[in-house]
Amino acid sequence: xxxxxxxxxxxxxxxxxxxxxxxxxxxxxxxxxxxxxxxxxxxxxxxxxxxxxxxxxxxxxxxxxxxxxxxxxxxxxxxxxxxxxxxxxxxxxxxxxxxxxxxxxxxxxxxxxxxxxxxxxxxxxxxxxxxxx
Length: 133
Description:
Oligomer: single chain
Number of domains: 1
Largest sheet: none
Strand content: under 5%
Structural class: mainly alpha
Helix content: over 70%
Shape: elongated
């Protein structure tokens, strides 16, 4: 399966999870997990979906080591960071370390995406000629 498709599918799971969390917070009136909700939607849904679309539009970016670093770093670091954010609210002593580790892993994965984009970010040739006579 194409990396862009995998990213979009995982992003849609974060979208549903973020929407459900937001709905539960609204129904209960308990907004303690707002930071978890926001980070899950922005880094899980929006960022992952946009990078997935970039991989689909620029297939050269979806191949190679940098793409793998981005995919695995984002998908391993983000759940750690989100769990840390959620547990920090409830006083877990290890939560700050989880937030730090998860955040650094996600940051490094997105730096690898950025480098990849600059090195291999050429649009699919079919997109350039579409609609031209």
